Amino acid sequence: MALIGYTNAGKSTLFNRLTGADVLSKDMLFATLDPTIRELDFASGRKVVLADTVGFISQLPTELVEAFNSTLEEVVHADVLLHVHDASSPLVAEEAVDVVKVLGDLGMDAETQAARIFHVLNKADLLTADDEQVASLQNMFSDGVFVSAKTGDGVDDLLVHLDRHLGKSAILATVNITPTDGAARAWLHQNAMVETSHFDDQGHEQILVSIDPADHARLCARWPDLSVLCAKA
Hints:
The protein is of the alpha/beta class. It is 38% helix and 24% strand.
């Protein structure tokens, strides 16, 4: 999972709020140059890896796209993109278009973007309930969640929505772990939600996990000899 958005939308502040990290958060271009990665834990027990990325700007030059390749790679490979918007900006619509264009330049087509993007309307503390901007944002991003990374308002709701979103596509997989599969076991506990675990007399463990399809593919590619039985969650 990766945070994306126009520069100064408050991505790093939200990253800090969600993960308890202490990432540099300033109102300046490219305050975040290299990807910062932390684990994000949900109340359900689900765990994901969250990456903070460089702020996008209008007409990002090709040479800058290449220079920021390391952080932008996190965007390309992320299963979920949290598109953080500055809800108080009068140019929020134009800024959103610029972000979409940069994603396109990275080779991400419209269908892929639609499937991966989750809209976060940040800086809600600068808006009022009767603000025309609120109605406009609700029309533009009907599935968006209003938050204030600064005050923490709305962050719990965001986490609930994200957890539900991640769970929709989850796969239930039964994985048989032998005593020599310690690395695979550790990986599962790090990247999947363990539902049940049972050991037999020979020390073999049968783990039932709820796992994202992309992580399931990574598991099978990395440990092709594991016995994995799957069913839709």
